[in-house]
Fold:
Amino acid sequence: GNSVTQMEGPVTLSEEAFLTINCTYTATGYPSLFWYVQYPGEGLQLLLKATKADDKGSNKGFEATYRKETTSFHLEKGSVQVSDSAVYFCARYNQGGKLIFGQGTELSVKP
Amino acid sequence: DADVTQTPRNRITKTGKRIMLECSQTKGHDRMYWYRQDPGLGLQLIYYSFDVKDINKGEISDGYSVSRQAQAKFSLSLESAIPNQTALYFCATSDPSGGAPDTQYFGPGTRLTVL
Structure:
């Protein structure tokens, strides 16, 4: 099938901790992959994307590498801040012009 | 000014009422989408439109209808609201002819409560 699976939240970390949010996908071929972020009370914003295998997307200290061997696109950040507290969504592009989203992972960063 | 706007931002209504959620965009994108967000379920696609004359059902279109009044406007209607339609609703746009045809841009959302 065509789906996106994320690690369940909520994830609670202390400031400056290392973050990993796992994301795996099923698809035919190599679709573009995305991470979107939703800050409290706001809509989704594109955080980063990768359009082909082995690409690394990066933005605001976050990174994710498109791994075709493991069909994964894990989100990482070396040192999280309180301001990173949000819900993170992994998504893949569908050739029908749509995005397929994971269920979202809530991140809470404590000072 | 925001590129994708939604009105209202919050709405409380009663079971059986008809309600319309509106989305406007100034990005000049041809494609527009309506999603609903429920806790733990991510975003589910309700309807999408690739141009003014093209309307398509998404995963969960039952109980909803849409109207694409112009390139910039895409409205979502609940003909007879029911409590399990209580959710956060998002509009999004994308540009198939641009440099990033697969990227969607989201509005701020409408929180709908059906009592």
User: Anything to note?
Assistant: The longest strand of chain B covers residues 42-51. Chain B has no helices and eleven strands.
